[in-house]
TrEMBL record:
GO biological process, one term: pyrimidine deoxyribonucleotide catabolic process
Protein family (similarity comment): Belongs to the 5'(3')-deoxyribonucleotidase family.
Taxonomic lineage from the root: Bacteria, Bacillati, Bacillota, Bacilli, Bacillales
Active site (catalytic residues): D7 (nucleophile), D9 (proton donor)
InterPro entries named in the record: 5'(3')-deoxyribonucleotidase, HAD-like_sf, HAD_sf
Domain of life: Bacteria
Record-given protein name: 5'-3'-deoxyribonucleotidase
Origin species: Lysinibacillus telephonicus
GO molecular function: 5'-nucleotidase activity
């Protein structure tokens, strides 16, 4: 059986959706999804960035994220019968998120084996055959075949196979090629 490692944020879970909502609510802003660039918060809002990063590091912040794509649940369930599925999340970026991420996975993906949840920093240590991720840096460091989950901030990269949603992921991996 081949193995597939799957990233969490912006592949399974809509972290940025909640982060934007929380940012607007906490700081009384009204910025749009298109304008919201988490990597620029320190530069654009230096006076708010410390409080913002403390907020996303609160123990429950990641517990009630919405699914990035509702099809992720049935598709991963089916893939799980034909592949070894691992969840690989760079949770070291937000150390306060561990428990909430774990519980979130158990809630939405109860059919996955929790011993296959990998909370890591650099995904080069993940020895799966495939990695589905929105982060180009992680795909470049990964040693198997990278699949890029398309998001507006990774549109310019062309070196990886790109998927736009979980239906496309299903078509890519099923039926299993012998
Ligand atoms: Mg991600």
């Amino acid at each position: 059986m081949k193995s597939i490692a799957v990233d969490m944020d912006q592949v399974l879970a809509d972290f940025l959706g909640k982060a934007l909502k929380a940012f607007n609510e906490r700081f009384n802003k009204n910025i749009s999804r298109e304008e919201f660039d988490i990597s620029k918060i320190e530069t654009l809002y230096p006076e708010l960035s410390n409080e913002f990063f403390l907020m996303i590091n609160e123990p429950d912040f990641f517990r009630d994220l919405e699914l990035e794509d509702v099809d992720a649940v049935p598709v991963l369930k089916e893939l799980n019968e034909h592949y070894e599925i691992y969840i690989a999340t760079a949770a070291m970026d937000v150390p306060g998120s561990f428990h909430a991420k774990y519980e979130w996975l158990l809630e939405y993906f109860p059919f996955l084996n929790p011993t296959h949840f990998i909370f890591c920093g650099d995904k080069k240590v993940v020895k799966a055959d495939y990695l589905i991720d929105d982060n180009i840096r992680q795909l470049q460091s990964f040693t198997g075949e990278g699949i890029l989950y398309s998001q507006p901030y990774n549109e310019q990269y062309t070196q990886f196979k790109r998927v736009y949603n979980w239906k496309e992921i299903k078509e890519l991996f099923l039926p299993v090629k012998q």
